[in-house]
């Protein structure tokens, strides 16, 4: 991300709006950044609703600090600085926004507050906003949560947004040496968390689902609608990583254990044997929205959303989320 396009007119207009207390012009100038700032807050917080709140907090702070903007930095840079510090302040006050050790030995941590990010809320120009698929996928968002908050901020500003060390240091009120050290430590953690993933975050990446991904999603939905346990099992890699959020202690790292848990929970038995599904995407990842009809109910009601990471035509990671009561997912409540 660069500031070059914004230098000049936007900064002058913002300063004029600040001096005249022109709230309408202020809103016009800042609102265009809402989506990219919200994505930034989501990377920091891993929770869509928290990201919405902190984006709104950012705009409140920007309005309150509007007279302090002198145009020495680009307007976008100033907004990101305020958003980053709003997220850090939020994390300083919350003790429930850190990963917890998984109950399964050797399985790492669980991010119980993780929520999916609706693709419709991503910035419309991905090249301009640097929303590469790798930096919004669930695995990346989870990995980032394992960084301490200020180290997390350094990593996102430097390696995702491409800020120079001096700009990141100024935004976080750190020394350049501290930023450099924090980035080195963060990169080590990210390599440990994502050993099989591409780690060049600023290289453009495709946003389109592959034919393999579309095919697996269709087969996943078909298996549910047919109550086909064997067909569902055949779609899973043996080393499947599964979790159902926000429930704790649901993480498993073997397909057999996942399937056994689903069966024990009643999958394809009475009350869990009448499904309809629709394909969707969140976090630029393939997903299926599952609708369940219980006996006596004339409608299928939104139950959960299954987000899939597909490798070689098989589901390598399956993250389920309770989807009911989340209108921001823009899924119909019933089918």
TrEMBL record:
Keywords of the record: Sigma factor, Transcription, Transcription regulation
Domain of life: Bacteria
Coiled coil regions in record: none
Matches recorded under CDD domains: Sigma70_r4
Sample GO molecular function, one term: DNA binding
GO terms under biological process: DNA-templated transcription initiation
Start and end residues of each RNA polymerase sigma factor 70 region 4 type domain: 140-189
Ranges for domain RNA polymerase sigma-70 region: 30-95
Record InterPro entries: NTF2-like_dom_sf, RNA_pol_sigma-70-like, RNA_pol_sigma-70_dom, RNA_pol_sigma-G_actinobac, RNA_pol_sigma70_r2, RNA_pol_sigma70_r4_t2, RNA_pol_sigma_r2, RNA_pol_sigma_r3/r4-like
Self-association state and partner proteins as the record states: Interacts transiently with the RNA polymerase catalytic core formed by RpoA, RpoB, RpoC and RpoZ (2 alpha, 1 beta, 1 beta' and 1 omega subunit) to form the RNA polymerase holoenzyme that can initiate transcription.
Protein name per the record: RNA polymerase sigma-70 factor (ECF subfamily)
């Amino acid at each position: 991300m660069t500031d070059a396009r914004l230098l000049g007119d936007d900064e002058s207009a913002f300063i004029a709006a600040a001096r005249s207390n022109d709230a309408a012009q202020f809103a016009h100038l800042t609102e265009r950044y809402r989506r990219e700032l919200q994505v930034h807050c989501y990377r920091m917080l891993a929770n869509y609703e928290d990201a919405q709140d902190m984006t709104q907090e950012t705009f409140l702070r920007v309005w309150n600090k509007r007279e302090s903007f002198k145009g020495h930095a680009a307007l976008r840079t100033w907004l990101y600085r305020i958003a980053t510090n709003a997220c850090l302040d939020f994390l300083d006050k919350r003790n429930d926004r850190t990963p917890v050790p998984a109950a399964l030995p050797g399985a790492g941590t669980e991010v119980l507050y993780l929520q999916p990010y609706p693709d419709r809320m991503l910035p419309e120009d991905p090249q301009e906003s640097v929303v590469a698929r790798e930096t919004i996928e669930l695995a990346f968002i989870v990995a980032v949560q394992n960084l301490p908050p200020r180290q997390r901020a350094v990593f996102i500003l430097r390696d995702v947004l491409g800020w120079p060390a001096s700009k990141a240091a100024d935004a976080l009120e750190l020394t350049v040496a501290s930023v450099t050290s924090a980035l080195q430590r963060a990169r080590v953690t990210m390599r440990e968390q994502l050993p099989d993933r591409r780690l060049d975050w600023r290289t453009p990446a495709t946003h389109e689902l592959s034919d393999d991904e579309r095919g697996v999603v269709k087969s996943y939905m078909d298996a549910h609608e047919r109550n086909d346990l064997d067909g569902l099992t055949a779609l899973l890699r043996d080393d499947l990583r599964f979790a159902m959020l926000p429930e704790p202690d649901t993480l498993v790292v073997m397909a057999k254990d996942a399937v056994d848990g689903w069966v024990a929970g009643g999958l394809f038995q009475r009350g869990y044997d009448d499904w309809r599904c629709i394909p969707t995407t969140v976090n630029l990842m393939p997903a299926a929205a599952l609708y369940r009809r219980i006996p006596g109910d004339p409608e299928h009601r939104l139950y959960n959303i299954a987000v899939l990471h597909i490798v070689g035509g098989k589901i390598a990671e399956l993250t389920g989320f309770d989807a009911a009561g989340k209108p921001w997912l823009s899924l119909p409540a019933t089918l």
